[in-house]
Amino acid sequence: MENAAGVSLNTSAFNRTGLPALSLPVGFLPSLVDGKTKLPVGKQIISKNYEEAEIYKVAHAWENNKDWHTCA
Question: Which InterPro entries match (predicted)?
């Protein structure tokens, strides 16, 4: 549980401010523990209030232009 405690620090500011945010899977990186295990990596996209549509446009463009599914 201690290792996961800092994970929510990346999202808490947006939860408090109410700004729209989206976490998008973008690929995989090798684990620092063994280097063989692939861990998922995400990109966080944040926008101004009431600009959710812009987040979806960015996420859609990323998914259509990157072949992240085959990075594992």
Answer: AS_sf
**Residues with Cβ within 8 Å of residue 37, at least 6 apart in sequence:** 30, 31
- Per the structure, the complete domain to which residue 64 belongs is given by 9-70
User: Which pLDDT tens digit goes with each residue over 35-72?
Assistant: 889 888 888 999 999 999 999 999 999 888 887 665 54
Q: CB atoms < 10 A from the CB of 38, how many?
A: 13
Identify the three-state secondary structure at position 66. Answer: coil
pTM: 0.66
4 lies in some domain = no
Does 47 fall in a domain?
yes
Q: Indicate the number of domains in the chain.
A: 1
